[in-house]
Write a structure and sequence with these properties.
Dna Ligase, domain 1, 427 residues, alpha+beta, 4 domains
Length: 427
């Protein structure tokens, strides 16, 4: 079977890497791909959001399965167009992807179907939002309603920060259309966990847990980013918690969406906060998370193509997921200045010796070839991911590979997985 993967980041590299291990994968294309993906798949120069061009390509090449990585093409209705043309595609429809595309809609669904989440209010009017802030002092969370590439969330620890965030979104056009409406939420304290699950609209198969590191610097300092690293499993996420999340969060979300006429097929990502009052949903995403995917798929033993076809054909109840009993750690290497402005086109050295490390994969996120040289082409450039029997060993392996790689002004967090080690030490 010919497979097309849409996207060009670290998540897509991990997806391509896993799909390539399937006996069903004859040839994999990736649009637009990146320098790392090019080693496993044929990269096609079509942007991820160019839906009509992607459809033409899939029809011309007789693609048997298309897998959508990023949120933008999902929100643009790529699944609906491919399905209407009789092509198999993995991912939620446009209506279902609105679970991520509108934070206000997600909150309404959660409220309606009794899914635990933070108290909130949604505003399009700046004055009304500011009046609400005056009554609900910081710490408080201000979110752009729409898609903002993982950066539309401000955790305001002071009233001034909250006001600034509202003004930036509703009158400063900080996130364009995405910020034309804001959701203001109560601040939740606790530990975050990411849980991804496959869904065919009825059956939900959760994946193993992971923890992301959103802040740019060590000890969770600095602004939020697209994610600076992840590990799996999360020691705090017990089997009891997993059962609870399946029955109180994941299944009700899928069932609720079906009742709303938004049948949810694909990957459902639940960002959870483990509070003293129990589990609460921070957000839903309508696709694989990045960089959690890099860690989670390193542990998946099942055939990913078979699972995705079962989702598309609505027969997920026939499947079971098999996981390696190991830990996986992904460390993101980023360009100096990220998540603000950063230089592109810098030569990367050390990729080959890093890739030669045992049980280690260097997933490319923001890279491109210039001639034979791999260059930087984004803020998050690489996701260096290692597997080992324990989290400590996986951390050590990942950082050995990280230290072999370099380009001017590159940086990474040095504490990925430290939270897990602390948790294990407390047991």
């Amino acid at each position: 079977m010919k497979i097309l993967v849409v996207g060009g980041g670290g998540r897509e590299h991990a997806i391509v890497w896993k799909l390539a291990q399937s006996h069903l994968a004859e040839h994999i294309y990736c649009a637009p791909g990146n320098a790392g993906i090019a080693e496993l798949a044929e990269c096609v120069n079509i942007p991820a959001d160019a839906v009509d061009m992607l459809l033409e390509f899939a029809q011309a090449e007789d693609i048997g399965l298309t897998v959508v990585g990023p949120e933008a093409p999902l929100a643009a209705g790529i699944v609906d167009k491919f399905t209407a043309a009789g092509l198999k595609i993995f991912g939620p429809s446009q209506k279902a992807a609105m679970l991520e595309g509108s934070k206000a809609l997600a909150k309404e669904i959660m409220e309606k179907y009794g899914i635990p989440t933070a108290k909130y209010a949604a505003f399009e009017d700046k004055e009304a939002a500011l009046a609400y802030l005056a009554e609900h002092p910081a710490p408080i969370v201000v979110k752009a309603d729409g898609l903002a590439a993982g950066k539309g969330v401000v955790v305001a620890m002071t009233q001034a920060e909250a006001v600034e965030a509202v003004e930036a979104m509703l009158s400063g056009n900080a996130f364009g259309e995405a910020g034309a409406r804001v959701v203001i939420e109560e601040y939740l304290e606790g530990e975050e966990v990411s849980v991804l699950a496959f869904s065919d609209g009825q059956t939900v198969l959760p994946m193993v847990s992971a923890q992301d590191h959103k802040r740019v610097f060590d000890d969770d300092q600095g602004p939020n980013t697209g994610g600076m690293g992840a590990y799996s499993p999360a020691p705090i996420y017990t089997s009891e918690l997993a059962e609870q999340v399946l029955h109180q969060v994941l299944q009700p979300a899928v069932d609720g969406m079906r009742k709303e006429g938004r049948i949810y097929k694909g990957v459902l990502y639940a960002g959870l906060m483990l509070t003293s009052q129990g589990v609460k949903v921070l957000e839903f995403n309508a696709r694989f998370g990045d960089p959690e995917t890099q860690a989670v798929l390193m542990r998946l033993k099942s055939d990913l193509v078979e699972i995705m076809l079962a989702v598309v054909d609505e027969r997920l109840q026939e499947c079971a997921l098999e996981w390696a009993d190991e830990a996986a750690v992904c460390v993101v290497m980023a360009s100096g200045g990220y998540p603000g402005s950063y230089a592109k086109g810098l030569p990367i050295t050390g990729l080959e010796p890093a890739a030669e490390q045992a049980d280690t994969v260097v997933f490319h996120a923001g890279t491109k070839f210039v001639g034979q040289q791999v260059m930087t082409d984004g803020g998050r450039v690489l996701g260096v991911t290692a597997c080992a029997p324990t989290i400590q060993q996986a951390i050590d392996k990942a950082y050995i590979a990280v230290d072999l790689i370099s380009w001017p002004d590159c940086f990474c967090r040095r504490d990925i997985g430290a939270k897990a080690l602390k948790r294990i030490a407390q047991k």
